[in-house]
Every structure is written in C-alpha cells, then in structure tokens.
Amino acid sequence: MKKLLSGVKPTGIPTLGNYLGAMKQFAQLQSEMPDCEFLFFVADEHALTTPQNPKELKQNIKNVAALYLACGLKEENLTLFIQSEVPSHIQLSGIFESISYIGELERMTQYKEKKKKQIDGVSSALFTYPVLMAADILLYDVDYVPVGEDQKQHLELCKIIANRFNNRFGETFTIPQGITPKIGARIMDLQEPTKKMDKSSIDSKGCIYLLEPVSSAKKKIKSAVTDSESIVKYDKTNKPGISNLMSIYSSITNFSYKKIEKLYQGKGYGDFKSDLAELVGNELKEIQTKYQEIISSEQLNIILNKGRERANFLGNKKIAKVYKKVGLGR
C-alpha cells in the first residue's frame, strides 16, 4: 500500500489558507486514493522552534487534531497522530543531523526569513527544522508528500539526505514525491496580498482563522484590499488583491477563474466580496459545527490512540534498521 504524509504545526488555529491549500485537499485526495494510507500528524515538536505558551500549545494540539477530522478526513485508511508521542521522529532527526551540512541549512529560505523576525535570538531548533522535517517524512517510507511552494526547498533537502544515507549505508529510505494541489495551494493575506496568509501573523486583519466567529470572517472578506479598477479579473501581478480573493472563491466552488470573471462581468467588487463572504461563512459554519462535535467526544482520543500505536510500530521498525546500519547499540 502506498503512503502519503503531512503535518501541521499547532502554533495557533489553522487559517482559511491552511484549509483551502491543504486540509480540504487532503479530504479530496483521500477519496481519490482509497488504496493509500494517509499519515497525518500534529507537528507539535516543530512548534517549539519558537517560544510557546505551554497551556495554549496543549490546547492547540487537540484543536488541530479535531480540525483535521472536521475538515473532511475519514477514519478509513487514516493514521492520525501527535508527533511527540512517537519518539522515533527525534531519534531519526539526530541521525540525520550527522549527515546534514551547515551550508545546506543556511540556504533554507524559510530559515532566513524567520531569522529576521526573531527578537530574542534564533534557536538551533529553527536552524535544524528541515532535518526534523526530513525525519518526519523518511521515517515512514512515504511515497507522496503534499507540499506548498514554501516547503518545496525543504522537500528537496529531504531527498538529498535520503540519497546521502542510502549511498553511504545502503538502500534504506524511500525517496518521496512532492504533490501540489491544482488550486488553493497558496492563499495570501487579505491586507497584504503579496505575502502568504499566516496564522502566526501579528496583524490578524488579513488572516481568517477556522474557529473565529463567522461574522468576523465575513467582515474581513468585505474589507480585503483590492484595487481602484473594480473589475473582477485574475491578474496576480497587477491585481494581487482581487486575484487572491478569486483564488479563495475558486477553491471553495471549483469554478475556473474565467468562469468567475464571466459571472461578475459588469459588476463591481462590492457584489463579488459580498458573495464571497457568504461562501466563506457557510464553509466555516460547517467546519465549526463538525469541530464542536469532535472536540468534546471520546472518539478523538480513540482515533489518536490508534494512530499513535500504528505510527510507533512503523517508526520503531525503521529506527531499529537505521541504528543497525550506522552501527549504534550493542
């Protein structure tokens, strides 16, 4: 059976961008690939690359797990688990650090960007983040990794590490293939449409969170930055604001940009934003209703316990093989 893996950091509530670019796509992929095992995890150890409030982190871990299910994932062929409950992630990351080079990590664009934002110093965990990510992926011999533009560089490093280990110690790891959703892969900030919608953003006006009040989300859509032309047309370079809103519209309805342009021909941004606000509001309402059912049920713990058992079985098996290859232990 083929395997597909993805993780989400619990550094806040996932956004509309996370949902349309990844979580909704996962549910679609799951229905299209019934013979594939879907390994989805809450990447709580990755969250520690930046300072976290322990109580908030613990609650966000549970929130993210529940939202995975609320966004459409089915229990069939699903292994849902929490990263820190599977020690082999850190164990394999330690091995990979011995064959990863400082120059490679220094070239990571995300590291360089996040380094600029750090006020109290840069942690070594932020620097080695891509190595742990490589361990997350390679631990399970997965075939597919859904990846956005901002993670492609990390996936390439993952492949380099896998090939380096295989060449040095013999065939051990499967080389994963990155897959990118056709639409909704990168939803931008509503106030700054040239940067990605980020749940860690200081200014929340440009970010819609999956658990925020529907009325608040609608207001943000209606006040989103556009341009003075007032023509609904997709042009990412010259009209980034309306193009971003069209990406959201397209991701929810599966309408092409041409179809959206035709629907709003002769109409202004007011009509378009009003309709989009309703679409987003309805989507959030459905997610939040399912989330409330899941978060308070014992079923979530049952699913996570089952996932922990399966992930540990696979992880322990792989780490034992790796330790033997590199010569660790008696």
Notes on the protein architecture:
The chain is mostly helical and 330 residues long. The protein folds into two domains: 2-180 and 298-326, HUPs (Rossmann fold, 3-Layer(aba) Sandwich), CATH 3.40.50; 204-292, Tyrosyl-Transfer RNA Synthetase. 54% of the residues lie in helices and 8% in strands. It has helices at 16-32, 44-47, 54-70, 88-97, 102-106, 109-117, 124-127, 129-138, 152-169, 214-222, 240-253, 257-263, 269-295, 299-326; strands at 2-8, 36-42, 78-82, 144-146, 177-179. Helix 4 packs across helix 8 and helix 10 (214-222) packs antiparallel against helix 13 (269-295). It is globular, with a radius of gyration of 21 Å.
CATH superfamily of the largest domain: HUPs
Overall 3D form: globular
Kindly report how far apart the N and C termini lie.
33 Å
Poorly predicted regions: none
